[in-house]
Each structure stands twice: as structure tokens, then as C-alpha cells.
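thread: overnight batch results

M.L. [08:02]
morning all. the overnight job finished for the chain we discussed friday. pasting input first so we're all looking at the same thing
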Amino acid sequence: MAEFDFDVIVIGAGPGGYVAAIRAAQLGLRTACVESRETLGGTCLNVGCIPSKALLHASEMFAEASDGSLAKFGVKIGQVELDLDTMHGEKAKAVKELTGGIAFLFKKNKVEWLKGHAAFTGANSVDVAGKSYSAKNIIVATGSSVTPLPGVTIDDEVVIDSTGALALPKVPEHLVVIGGGVIGLELGSVWKRLGAKVTVVEYLDEILPGMDGEVRKEARKIFKKQGFEIRTSTKVTAVERNGSGATVTVEPAAGGSAEMINADAVLVSIGRRPNTEGLALDRAGIQLNNKGQIEVDHDFRTKVPSVWAIGDVTPGPMLAHKAEDEGIAAAENIAGQTGIVNHEVIPSVVYTHPEIAGVGRTEDELRAAGVEVRVGKFPFMANSRAKTNRDMDGFVKVIADARTDRVLGVHIVGSLAGTMIAQAAQAMEFGATSEDIAYTCHAHPTHSEALKEAAMAVTGLPIHI
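M.L. [08:03]
and the structure it wrote out:
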């Protein structure tokens, strides 16, 4: 082993990279992690998952305090004021605590932080800030970045990406969100709650591409009730800066007359793309696929035996928890153990209000594949805890194989969907049937009873509806 500086070098300290590095070190491997940011945690902790959830939580509390909805519970509040600087400060505090926590874990587990950008110089070597390092194994975990919209320039003032949307110095009067996916709806929710008019422009015929069809329709109905203007089947043809604002030109996706929308801020959120530029992967003998991704096998090894890849640079959903699990699996495989990720059971969550979550296959996907299914649905309107909380939007949907009763997908719209989906994922990981869930005792009164009732509804025998 003396011929290499390290057993493992991980490139990138996002959720996948830092987790891979820690697990490799825990397994006795001499490990280094390359990161160019001043803080660890990647996009997720610094300018993604964590700060957005901080703002979502804070804005939800502001909306609840200011819209009069607490009055029905006997909680009467006078004039409510927004202190946006303090809100941003609390967000920054959460980010600092979590990124600092990773630095502590690196020290605890003896992971060496190599500061700078990494570029391959061979299959077992990289250059970082002008210094060469070698390793028996190298894991690429460089994540993803915002996909640009052709012809639209992000100026970080009026035309912004997701990072800019987390740091707006004031509430815009009118925010136009280009893209009706997870990021656009979450960040649109923040500024809608704080007082902005929000218009969402989506090219496809429905928001939340890839999610279950019934969930997408229900979500759109709820967002419209909340005051969002949602323009589906609409494409953006131009965004022009106009002094302190911008003009967004849109037209029907199928073609038609153009229309101008004036905005104080325009958020471009049409997706993300793998971060592979500057890695000099060709020097390691790796070529990207036609989507700019690094192809890996079941063990997360590339076609070059010494190079591995995980997370957003590989095919599959771009989710922090997927990257984390892949990081653990890759490290365990490098150490000679058996690391496995079941990509059929990767939950996804939209942290709007209500939350939206899903795991497994959608009904549309299954029927298109010719799989005969049975579906059970249960509305939160009939759930006792949701009713007592006066928070009854949404439903739980359980999809089971009609022949074996094995659960193939669970999809939830509801205030606690992001937490509830964990039970569904665990059940599916163990190969549960809808009957298994239906005959598992659930505490009363809880939102989780809606999942039990939806499972009972698969066989047409729910109790409370």
C-alpha cells in the first residue's frame, strides 16, 4: 500500500462524498476528501436542501401567524412583521452548525481534507491545487449544478437560480418561476408565504414531472388554492432585464401567440446537470454517456477498476439521500464488504405545504409496463388527527401488485408526507404486502393511520370511509 498516498480519495464533500469518506475511514482505509468550498457539505448543506428547509419552515410560521388561520384555535395575534434579515440569519446559523459538524466528523474519523479542485492525472492520481496525490481507489462524488436555460443569463440580482432565491434581500412583488419541479415549487412557496405574487411556468402539461399522476393533479389544485398562478404547457422564449425587473416572454408549448409577463424577480429552475467539467476524466480513461453522466456497475465502479462514482454524476434521481446510501455502499465495496443500494426504493419529498412524497413506481408507470395493480386511497379529510389539526389536504395512495399483493408504490400528499414515507419505504424494502401494512397496528390518533387505511382500501375494505 505504500505506493499510494491514500487507500481512498473522494472527490467532493457533498452528502454522497463526505459520507463515503467517513465510512471508508471507519473501515480502516486511509482516506482523503477533496473539496474546493470553504465549508464542507456540498450544494445540499450550503445552498440547497438545508437553507431551503430553514426558509420553508420560517416562512410557514410567518404565514401561519399573519394570515389569521390561528384564530380558529383561539390564538389571536396582532400586527405581524417580517424581519427578513433575521430569517436569513437563522438560516445561516443552521448551515454553519451542520457544515461545522462535518468538519468535526472528518477530524474524528481521521479523514484528510484536501482543499481545492481535483483533476485526474491518471487512473490512480489527481492534482489538487497544484499538488499531486495518488490513491488505490478514487470516488467521484462531485454532485450537480443548475441547468441553464439557453438564451437566459443569470445575473444573481433579478434573474436568479436556486442559490440566489435563497438570499433575496427583499420580498419581490412578483416572482416568476421557470420550471414547475421540486425546487421551483419549494422556493416559490417561501416567497409566496412572505407576500410575493408567484407565477409558475412549466413546459409540460402538469407540474412535478415524474411524480404520480393523481398526486400531480392534487398538488396543482392545492397550490392554486394557495394563490399560485400556474401556467402549464407553456414555454419561455425570452427573459430580458428591464431596469430593476425583467420581462418574461412566454407562448403555448405547442405554438401560438406570445405573451409578456413583468416580474421583479425570475427564478430559473428547470433542473440540474452533473458536475464533471474540469475533472479531466479522460486522463483516467472514462467517457461520459450522452447525458453527461458517469456510468457505473451495481457496485458503483466505473469501467476503470480504480475509479468509482456516486450521486448526481451517475444515472438516477438527483437526491441527497440516494447519494449518501451510494457513498456508504461504494466505501464498503472498496473495503471488500458487500455494499448494496436498492434503487427501486428511493423516496422523494417535496417540502411544500402540504408536503408531497413518493416511493417506488407510479400507477402510470406500472400500467404502461403492463403490470396489473390494485390501488387503495385514503383522504386526510377522514383522518382524525388531520381533522383535529384542521390540516386535511391530500391523501395516501398505495399501489399493490394485483397477483401477489406486494406493495409497488406509495404516494402521499399531506402535511407530514416526508416523515410518513419512511414507513412505506421500509415496508417495501422488506417486501411487504398491502395486507402487511393493513394488519400492522398504528397508534391513534396519528396521520400514519391514513397509510394503514389506504392499504386496507387496496382490498376495498377501509374502515373510516
